[in-house]
Structures are given as structure tokens and as C-alpha cells.
Amino acid sequence: MSKEALAKDIVAAVGGEDNVASLYHCMTRLRFKLNSGSKFDKAKIEALDGVVSAVVSNGQYQVVIGNAVSTVYDAIMENHDIKGESAYVEQDDSGKSNNVIAKLFNVMSGIITPVVPTLAGSGMLKALLVILTTYFGLSAESSTYLILNAASNAVFYFFPLALAVSAAKVYRVNTFVALAIMGALMEPNFTGLINEIGDVVSFAGIPVVLMRYNGQIIPAILAIWMFSYIEKFLKKYIPSVIQMFAVPMISLLVMVPLTAILIGPFGVYVGNGIASFIDFMSNTSGLLTGALIGGGWTFLVMFGVHWGIVPAMLQNLSNTGFDTIRPPVANATFAQAGVAMGVFLKAKDKKLKSLALSSMLPALLAGITEPIVYGLSVKYKRPMIAALIGGTVGGAFAGAMNTTVMAYVFPALTTLPAFMTDTFAYYIISITIAFVLTTILTYVFGFDEGDSAEKDTTAQAPVKGERVTIHSPLKGQTLPLAKVNDHAFSTEAMGKGIAIVPEDGKVYAPFNGTIATLFPTNHAIGIISDEGVELLIHIGIDTVKLNGEHFTAHIEQGQKVKQGQLILEVDIAAVKQAGYETTTPVIITNTKDFTDIIETDQANVAKSDVILTSVTL
User: Fold this and answer.
1) How far apart are CA 162 and CA 115, in angstroms?
2) Please, which residues have CB within 8 angstroms of residue 112's CB and are 6 or more apart in sequence?
């Protein structure tokens, strides 16, 4: 499939360009912000050739592509009227999530992600200089070295400025005012006041503890976060005719002293405290710390919470010139590469072998593991256990030997120079352990190629002349789809069916079949009957925004179910109290496979009642 065709199909499967509020991409995946999450067709997206997986995480709708993500992104932006974002942009008030932790990690991701490529490039340049001076005789006193060293150090020295620009885009404030706020603390008049760190001077009678802010992370993020409120306040009360100069002037007048007096020192102390805590953990039990990081990193990335740890790595590099977190992280990467190698050696299916080999190369050469994680580890389950063991053992060794890295890079064979500190040999041993052990365990544990998500969700095609009855999954009052308060359902764009206004929160299997899709938020379930009917049960309208709160699933994706089996429970009263409709559309998504779909004429139904009958002539 061409990238243009894939882009078109992806946009259609997320609800069309009108449903896309904005779109950006990271190293491997498209990240959609949607107006209505109910239109995100996970099963349809994952069936597309060129898509590794579809993920709903922290309120984002993600389509995992792999190395070709930028090409697909460009194809979408060229052929569709969709707003692009360089990173995460904070939601409008109308779309705010109640999940503060999820929002925090999304913000951190949005601020740091744009800077990561420059960090990685600068880090590799720094590692190259080490090789040139150690093995090729380049003098550290030469002008050539000094110029290249300036190039490798610039992003780290001026990191607060880079973060100020990135944070300004996330918080939607004036980029150049944000840059000036942090730039003032690195300007010679300010730095000239410092004889020693911690010296105290006065600003209008208020004591100012002097700090050096080059390389600092937290002060910049906190300062621009506070500036976002100041700017919003000023724009609200200052007349528009003088806003052009008045807002920047007052912002600088307030924020520079406030940052120097309070925000900056607080941020420095917090950053140093985090770095000291990590150093304490490494020195107290490097083995345990490394084991937890090596074994758990993949899961942190899957849920998007790894961004809470990335600032700690950067702070370590800024404070000491090396970091002890990244080496155990590398073991998680090489463990996933071991999964791909194990699958390649074990698999009988040629297509699966090809997938394993093609996904292993990006992991080994670029540190990109998403195609392996979602295409192999999660899909086949037992390889994930193998990776957990391999990453844990390798990470434990790296932690026990206090292995270090001199720059922030993606762990891969191509970035080995960044790990060429005095613990380089230990690093090589640790990633070898992770890769080899995981390869062996994946081969030994095996995996059922017949249990793949693709085969699990593939039922026999509808048989001509056959009638398939669909029982009600809920007790409640029936309602025509035309009266559902959602355009995608009311227009039958997603298929024909019926809606139910539930009396209680028990949801039952409407027929014998397989759970094809269970949304991470548990608000929607896709089921395929043994006869080939593809059914969507969508509990409530826009309830995806509840992030799974009030929903309890009793089944998992890929599980076989019997008609009348309890598959999910929802607290109907709590959902209503949260301000959401509980009307539940029950849709036959492969409507085109049937010549007729007959709806019940009963006003009230229970789980034993037939609500739909599909007919193929």
C-alpha cells in the first residue's frame, strides 16, 4: 500500500478530517487529538497494511507506524485539511481531562520531545570527540576541538532557552518573551553578580539567592508555566491598543525577578534533589535499581509515563556529565530486539519471520522498539515475559556495575560511542545478556502463531441465506439510532443497529463469539460472532473522556464468550453524574455484508430478548 493510500485510510478510520482537532508525530507513531474518541476505529486501523498497532493512552489516539511515520504524516498533511502540531498542545477548557497525572506526562512529553533529536545529535558529537582525542590524536587544545566541543555543548549549556521555546509552544504564550525570561538569567549582567553559587544579593530589598542556570531543566519549565497565567491575565485586562508592548514589558518586569527570587532557586534545588536521590539509589542498590529500570521501562513507555524520568537523566548529565539511568534503559531496548530475533528463529510463517527481521533492525540500529513491542511482544504475550526477564537481568548487571553514559542518546549499536566511559565493557556485557537471554527465552517459551490478534479477530464470512440473531447486551429502553445524540451513530455512518438506554450497568455478550476489540477505556467493545457478525457496543456518548473511570471489564481482547455472559459493568449513576449520556448504540459494523438488518419493535428489552436480526440472501 502506498503511503498516500495508507494516510487516506488512517484519516478515514479515525473519523475523517473533521474529527481531527490536531495531529503530530513522534519517532514511530502518529498522535491524534480527536473531537470524538468514539469514531476511532481501532480494529480497522490495525488491519491496515503498514500499521503496527493502534493505542489509546493518556487521552491520545495513537497509530504506531514505525520508521515510515514521518512519510505518512507528510502524506496526511499534504492531502487533508488537518491542523498540525509540533508537540503536545494543552487542551481547551472544554476538553480538559480530570486525570492530572496523565496531563502532566503529556505536557512533559510535549516540551521535551522536540528537543530530543538535538540532544541526541549533540551527545553523539560529544562521543565522537572522545574517540578522536583518545584514539586519533586530536588535541583538546586545538581550535578544531574547541569549535566542535562548542557545537556539542551548546544545547546543554543553553538548555533552559531551548526548553523555554518548547514550553512556550505547549502553553501557547509568546515564544520570544519566554526566551527573554530565561535568557535574562544567563545574561552577563546577571551572571556577573555571581562569585559563588548561593551568594545573596538584593532586589528592591528582597534577597535573591544566585544560581547558575545553564543546563538546568525544571526552572525553565516552571517559569514558562507561571508566565502562561501572567500573560493570560494581562491580555484580559490591558486594552488591546497597547497590548503589543505592554504585555511583554510587564511580563518581563514581573517574571524575571520572580524567577530569580523564587522559581529559579526552587527549580534548581528540586532538580539537584532528584539527581541526588538517583545517585543515592544507585549507590545503595544499583542492582535493584537497574533491574527495575531494565525490566519496567518498556511498560513505562507503553503508558507514556517515561517522560517523568527523562528530566532526571538530563539533570544527571547537566550536574555530573554522565548518567546511570540510560544504561539499564538500554537493556529494555536490546531485550525487545531479542524478542524479534527469537521470533525470527522460531516462527514458521514467512510473513511473521519477515516482520520480526524488519522490526529488529530499527531496534538495533536506532533504538526504535515499538514495532516489536506492539507487533510481537504484546500480540503474542509470552515474548513479553521473555523480554521482561532479559531486560531485568541485563539491567541488574548494568546497575550493579554502576554503568554510565556521557550523553542523552537512544540506546542502539550506532550510539555505542556515547557509552564509552570507563564502564563501557560492563555496558557491552549487560546489553549482550539482555539480547541473548531474551532470544533464548522467546525461542524456548514459544508462541502460538494461531493466537495472533489478526487470526483471533477473523471469523468466518457470513453464510448466504443465514439469519443471525443478536440478543440485547443491556436491560433497558430501545431507541432508534436516528435519535442518538452523535452524528456518527445517528447517520448510520458506522453501520445499522439500535440504541438502548440502560436501566442498570450490566453488559452481556449478545451472541457466541470473540472479543475483537476492547478499548483501553472499557467504554466500547467490538465482538465478532461465530457466524461473522461484527458488532460494536458503545456504552454512552463521548464516555471515552472518562478514561475508564466507572467501567469494569470482565473479559479481555481475544477472549471467546458465550451469549448471556457478563462481559462488563458500568456505574450508570456515576456516568450520568459526570455529565455524560448513557445511551448505548449497538451497531453492526459490517452492515454491507448483509442484505437486511431487522430491528426489534419491543420498547423495553432484557438480555434474553432479540434486538437485531441480520439476514444474508
Assistant:
1) 7
2) 163, 166, 307, 310, 311, 314
Q: Which residue has the cell 460472532?
A: 529
Select from 446, 448, 426 the least CA-distant residue to 339.
446
**Fold matches, 3-85 and 459-615:** no
- Residue type present at position 610: V
Residue 602 C-alpha cell reads as 419491543
Q: What is the DSSP annotation of 296-316?
A: HHHHHHHTTGGGGTHHHHHHH
Over residues 474-489, the pLDDT tens digits come to: 999 999 998 888 776 7
Scanning 460-604, the segments in alpha helix (DSSP H) are 487-490, 572-577
Which residues neighbour 146 within 8 Å (Cβ) at sequence distance 6 or greater?
Answer: none
pLDDT tens by residue, 452-468: 434 444 444 455 446 78
Across the range 172-201, mean pLDDT stands at: 92
585 is catalytic: no
pLDDT for residue 566 is more than 50: yes
Banded pLDDT at 320 (limits 50, 70, 90): confident
Which of 28, 66, 54, 35 lies closest to 520, judged by CA? 54
C-alpha to C-alpha distances, 354 to 27, 46, 287, 498, nearest whole angstrom: 22, 18, 36, 43
> What does the pLDDT average to over 343-355?
87
Tell me what the mean pLDDT of segment 490-512 comes to: 89
Q: Which triple of cell numbers denotes residue 131?
A: 574517540
Question: Any idea where the domains of the chain sit in the sequence?
Answer: 3-85, 114-282, 322-454, 459-615
8 Å CB contact between 142 and 129: no
CA distance 367 to 412: 5
Domain 3-85 has CATH 3.40.190.10: no
Return the pLDDT at 427.
96
Nearest to 235 by CA among 253, 247, 248: 247
Task: Report the interhelical angle of 3-13 vs 69-79 (nearest 10°).
Answer: 70
DSSP sequence for 224-256: HHHHHHHHHHHHHHS-GGGHHHHHHHHHHHHHH
245-279 confidence digits (pLDDT tens): 999 999 999 999 999 999 989 988 887 777 777 77
Q: Where are the alpha helices (DSSP H) in 507-549?
A: none
Quick one: pLDDT band at residue 307, thresholds 50, 70, 90?
Answer: low
Lowest-pLDDT range, 222-226, 327-331, 611-615? 611-615
Separation of alpha carbons 27 and 45, rounded Å: 19
**Residue with cell string 459526570:** 578
- Least confident piece of the model among 295-304, 332-341, 556-565: 295-304
Q: Give the helix/strand (H/E) hosting 551.
A: strand 551-553
For 149, left (φ over 0), alpha (ψ -120 to 50), or beta? alpha
In words, the CATH class of domain 459-615 is mainly beta
The per-residue pLDDT for 105 is 66
| Structural contact between residues 414 and 363, judged by C-beta atoms closer than 8 angstroms | no
Partners of 552 in the β-ladder: 569
Specify whether the CB–CB gap between 36 and 15 falls below 8 A. yes
Directed axis angle between helix 382-400 and helix 326-346, to 10°?
A: 150
What phi and psi, each to the nearest 5 degrees, are found at residue 581? -75, 145
Dihedral Cα 85, 87, 92, 93, nearest 10 deg: 180
Of these residues, 12, 21, 26, 312, which one is catalytic?
A: 26
Q: Output 101 or 597, whichever has higher pLDDT.
A: 597
